[in-house]
Design goal:
Order of helices and strands: HHHHHHHH
Number of strands: 0
Strand content: under 5%
Helix content: over 70%
């Protein structure tokens, strides 16, 4: 069930991107909203779980996640936070580095899901919500090259399978290590969401629509937080 949800979130995003890809405003808003959602999930759910685990050095893994995401972004060129650059020569090729970057990113997010029993845990909803805008960007990027080629589907499939694959591999790790993977992902989430939220607006003017969408994302996550019973 979790695997289906993960794959659907990617496919849905790709199709939205394919058909609404020209509406960059929509993608941006979705992205900002998902950032508000992610950062709330991080602070409300993931961090308490990490730091409540009693592992002394777990904070180092959070920092490692932040650094890892910085490295991945040198591959993806900030694709995860909606930086799609229109380069004539890039129209038809999706750089391998981008695919690798996105794959690693989604793969790592999947690992802590191995121990997940609930279908819609806050952590999972965070990933699903976060998959949408990335897949949207992917869809619109691929739609620009106007071809629904086998290569296109291969890329979508690689990305859609990354988290489920991580989840599957996660079963082979000692469950006690889940907390470390979770910490790395928390670092990744923290970096992505803060970059999206704090990216400076032109002339540092107040961007009210951005604030509204961040608050919407936060509200959604809070709603999930309050209705979700914490009986771990």
């Amino acid at each position: 069930m979790i695997v289906i949800a993960l794959m659907l979130s990617v496919l849905l995003g790709v199709f939205l991107g394919k058909y609404f890809g020209s509406q960059q405003k929509f993608a941006k808003n979705l992205l900002v909203m998902s950032a508000g959602f992610l950062i709330t999930i991080c602070i409300n759910e993931v961090f308490p779980e990490i730091y409540g685990s009693g592992e002394h050095n777990v904070g180092i893994f959070v920092i490692a996640g932040v650094l890892l995401q910085m490295l991945l972004e040198s591959l993806t060129k900030g694709f995860e936070h909606g930086h799609f650059h229109h380069h004539a020569e890039d129209e038809h090729i999706l750089p391998i580095a981008l695919i690798v970057g996105l794959f690693v990113h989604a793969f790592i997010e999947g690992i802590p899901l191995a121990q997940e029993k609930e279908v819609f845990s806050p952590y999972l909803t965070g990933i699903l919500f976060h998959n949408l805008p990335i897949s949207f960007v992917l869809g619109s990027f691929l739609a620009r090259s106007k071809t629904f080629s086998p290569k296109f589907w291969l890329v979508v499939l690689i990305f859609a399978l990354a988290s489920p694959l991580g989840m599957w591999i996660g079963h082979y790790f000692n469950p006690e290590h889940k907390i470390y993977f979770l910490a790395v992902v928390a670092g990744i989430f923290l970096h992505i969401s803060s970059v999206i939220i704090f990216e400076s607006n032109k002339n540092h003017k107040m961007d009210w629509s951005k604030i509204i969408f961040v608050v919407l994302g936060i509200a959604l996550a809070m709603l999930g937080h309050l209705t979700h019973d914490h009986h771990h």
